[in-house]
Automatic annotation (TrEMBL):
Database matches in InterPro entries: PH_SunI-like
UniProt-recorded name of the protein: Sublancin immunity protein SunI-like PH domain-containing protein
Domain of life from the UniProt record: Bacteria
Domain Sublancin immunity protein SunI-like PH: 2-82
């Protein structure tokens, strides 16, 4: 099984996992942080990744909704996402 990949595409954050691709406008992202809860506080958040056997989660809050990334590569993904968001600001 492949892990989550993130990259910048124009002014969007592109999140790829398995056969899915999610694009989030970087200007819509309000906060990126580690989530220390198992399933996240926001019950309506879009969940990407495998929630079991994974202890690390990244929460991405946007003006239109929230996302939770389940990953074992938390520090690398967190640094990339924060860099992309800061480049837009």
């Amino acid at each position: 099984m492949l892990g989550i990949k993130v990259e910048k595409s124009k002014d969007n954050l592109m999140i790829k996992w398995q056969l899915s691709k999610t694009e989030i406008p970087l200007s819509d992202i309000t906060e990126v942080k580690l989530d220390d809860t198992y399933g996240g506080n926001d019950k309506t958040a879009i969940r990407i990744g495998t929630p079991y056997a994974t202890t690390d989660r990244i929460a991405i809050e946007t003006v239109n909704g929230n996302y939770i990334l389940f990953t074992t590569n938390v520090q690398s993904l967190l640094n990339k996402i924060r860099t992309y968001v800061n480049d837009v600001s």
